[in-house]
């Protein structure tokens, strides 16, 4: 009896550690990918964007309660960051934070891609099934790509701070109205707006091109991060007009969703997330190598 009492916890711990080791190994192994067939990049147009948005809205209507549970953390994090920036006396970073927060939006929508995939395949599409599917060889690539977007987001905030320091800085502001007044009515303020908008556009365009289909692609197949990034870039390059229009739709929708204290994102993000999955399905086609 003593042996069993002592042995069971030890055995259980050893099994859990071994399972964690195997899971970590699968996650790391999935970063490079195992998909042999390279995808075909398709032409898409405004009709495809509309169709993807329509399917995204239908997915949201069908999975509303589970979807809201998945994405509620995203607007909460945005609100907390905004409050922290104001309380820390970094008012000049509030607009860059709000404008740049969509840069990490694709990470928050990962569960939505999986739910749309499962619903499309006729599988259970609740939040539990979506979360449980994001493991093994899917987890490593998704985390790696998510880390890349986080680095880009931090670089954008650093660039925005440098632009402020070179124009309106080092003066600090206690209120947002004061910052807006100087930004709109002074030469250095207008220079800050022009430079910030131009640099922000570059960051946004970069994330759009590398994230347009890469996350859904990683959820769909074991392609690995390099191929997912290359394919997303190829889709953007082959469809510059549709890519620009999609970027405007995403940016405009997310900005509107953030106006009421980020609360609107609870609806906007799910629809865009589901729509991104369906846009990926239209933009990328995999062919069975055996079929030639």
Folded structure, characterized:
This protein is mostly helical and 292 residues long. It folds into two domains: 30 residues; 243 residues, no CATH class. The chain is built from 15 helices and two strands. It is globular. It starts with a helix and ends in a 7-residue tail after the last strand. 37% of the residues are buried. The N terminus is likely disordered.
Write the SSE topology.
Elements: H1 2-32, E1 40-41, H2 46-62, H3 64-71, H4 73-87, H5 94-100, H6 105-108, H7 110-120, H8 127-133, H9 139-167, H10 176-185, H11 187-211, H12 214-220, H13 225-238, H14 240-258, H15 265-283, E2 284-285
Antiparallel strand pairs: 1-2
Helix share bin:
over 70%
Q: What is the SS-derived class?
A: mainly alpha
Question: Beta-strand level of the residues, as a percent range?
Answer: under 5%
> What does the main sheet amount to?
2 strands, antiparallel
The N- and C-terminal alpha carbons lie at a distance of: 63 Å
Question: Count the helices. How many?
Answer: 15
Radius of gyration: 22 Å
User: How do the SSEs run, as a string of H and E?
Assistant: HEHHHHHHHHHHHHHHE
Shape: globular
Low-pLDDT runs of 5+ residues are 1-9, 12-30
* Overall pLDDT: 81
Widest sheet, order of strands: 1-2
Counted beta strands = 2
């Amino acid at each position: 009896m003593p042996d069993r009492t002592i042995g069971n916890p030890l055995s259980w711990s050893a099994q859990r550690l071994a399972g964690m080791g195997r899971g970590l190994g699968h996650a790391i192994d999935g970063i490079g990918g195992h998909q042999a067939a390279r995808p075909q990049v398709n032409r898409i147009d405004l009709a495809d964007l509309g169709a993807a948005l329509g399917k995204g809205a239908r997915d949201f209507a069908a999975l509303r309660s589970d979807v809201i549970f998945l994405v509620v953390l995203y607007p909460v994090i945005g609100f907390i960051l905004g409050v922290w920036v104001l309380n820390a006396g970094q008012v000049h970073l509030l607009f860059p934070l709000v404008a740049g927060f969509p840069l990490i939006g694709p990470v928050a929508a990962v569960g939505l891609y999986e739910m749309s995939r499962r619903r499309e395949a006729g599988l259970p599409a609740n939040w539990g099934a979506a979360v449980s599917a994001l493991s093994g060889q899917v987890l490593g690539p998704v985390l790696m790509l998510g880390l890349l977007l986080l680095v880009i987001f931090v670089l954008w905030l650093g660039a925005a701070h440098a632009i402020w320091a070179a124009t309106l800085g080092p003066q600090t502001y206690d209120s947002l109205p004061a910052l807006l007044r100087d930004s709109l009515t002074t030469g250095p303020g207008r220079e800050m707006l022009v430079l910030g908008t131009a640099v922000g556009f570059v960051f946004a365009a970069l994330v759009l091109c590398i994230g347009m289909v890469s996350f859904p692609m990683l959820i769909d197949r074991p392609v690995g991060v390099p191929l997912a990034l290359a394919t997303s870039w190829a889709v953007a390059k082959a469809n510059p007009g549709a890519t620009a229009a999609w970027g405007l739709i995403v940016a405009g929708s997310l900005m509107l969703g953030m106006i009421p204290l980020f609360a609107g994102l609870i609806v906007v993000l799910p629809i865009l997330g589901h729509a991104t999955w369906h846009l990926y399905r239209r933009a990328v086609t995999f062919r069975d190598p055996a079929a030639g």
